[in-house]
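Good morning,

Attaching, inline, the backbone tokens for the sequence recovery test we're adding to the shared suite. The designed sequence is right after.
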């Protein structure tokens, strides 16, 4: 399947619905100024990243608010562009999302100075969410919007990827999220180079999975080991779903290693003491990571009968609700 297949679907619909909405979407607020430079404090108070420091967490929340607000708003719009029932409402939401993305592309958002490691982490998370949101709305984009947004996403991906070339930077769950960002950019912009880079990151992640299904890098997170296993599954399951849309079965790679990670994590939520024994400390109570169990249960009901209790159905770093992503990726009839 060619990468541009997803963009072709809906073209006829777009022509029919475009006339029903005004040139400026009725409820589309002006986008905020582009955030080029990011300076974020680390919010953990210990070296292993297992104890959140309240003062640092408050400072981080305040500093990251403009990014969170932007990504959340764009992904909410992309959800509406896929899930609303009326064609005109879908087109209006999509055009607003594209206007916001275009504004930040023109302003060179996320392309300035990343002043801390946390800033680098934030950039690739937000890139993943924005690229997936763009994937959901790009059928509505005008040619000039496609050129601008695609070029910006690819440049941001290249900048974010370069951070991990430093051997001093751990390739744990952050690396897997970088893989999702690369894969989302590759699929959304028809870039084979970024797609191939995503596949290499995915294979790295599978190689990290131990025979028992655990991730040693995440076991090292002590009291948050279970949390980070689920957090690591979010980008990996979504990457596998992106691959399915291209006719590629990534779930079976390395003898189904991803299934082992899923089983370990699901069993960990059922019996946290199992993870506690490996991590050497009781596990912090945590909600299952967003989105991945919805997608996995839909794909493999024989392995997971239903999404994990307490898990949310999406996240801004997954492009919003995973139902909207699944609908975008589904084969068009």
């Amino acid at each position: 399947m060619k990468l541009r297949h997803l963009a072709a679907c809906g073209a006829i619909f777009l022509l029919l619905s475009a006339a029903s909405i005004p040139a400026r979407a009725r409820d589309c607020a002006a986008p905020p100024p582009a955030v080029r430079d990011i300076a974020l404090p680390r919010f953990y108070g210990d070296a292993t990243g297992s104890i959140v420091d309240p003062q640092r967490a408050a400072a981080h929340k305040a500093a990251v608010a403009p990014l969170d607000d932007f990504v959340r708003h764009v992904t909410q719009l992309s959800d509406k562009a896929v899930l609303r029932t009326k064609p005109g409402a879908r087109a209006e939401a999509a055009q607003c999302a594209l206007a916001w993305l275009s504004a930040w592309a023109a302003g060179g958002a996320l392309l300035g100075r990343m002043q801390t490691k946390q800033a680098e982490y934030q950039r690739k998370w937000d890139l993943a969410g924005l690229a997936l949101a763009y994937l959901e709305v790009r059928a509505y984009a005008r040619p000039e919007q496609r050129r601008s947004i695609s070029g910006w996403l690819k440049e941001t991906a290249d900048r974010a990827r370069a951070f991990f070339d430093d051997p001093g930077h751990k390739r744990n769950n952050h690396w897997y999220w970088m893989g999702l960002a690369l894969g989302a950019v590759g699929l959304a912009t028809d870039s084979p180079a970024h797609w191939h880079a995503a596949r290499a990151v995915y294979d790295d992640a599978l190689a990290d999975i131990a025979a028992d299904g655990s991730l040693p890098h995440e076991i090292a997170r002590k009291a948050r080991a279970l949390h980070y296993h689920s957090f690591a599954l979010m980008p990996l399951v979504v990457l596998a779903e992106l691959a399915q849309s291209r006719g590629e079965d990534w779930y079976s790679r390395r003898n189904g290693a991803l299934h082992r990670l899923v089983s370990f994590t699901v069993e960990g939520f059922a019996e946290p003491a199992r993870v506690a024994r490996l991590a050497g400390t009781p596990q912090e109570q945590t909600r299952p990571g967003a989105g991945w169990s919805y997608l996995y249960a839909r794909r493999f009901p024989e392995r997971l009968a239903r999404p994990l209790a307490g898990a949310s159905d999406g996240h801004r770093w997954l492009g919003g609700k995973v139902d909207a992503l699944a609908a975008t990726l589904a084969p068009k009839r």
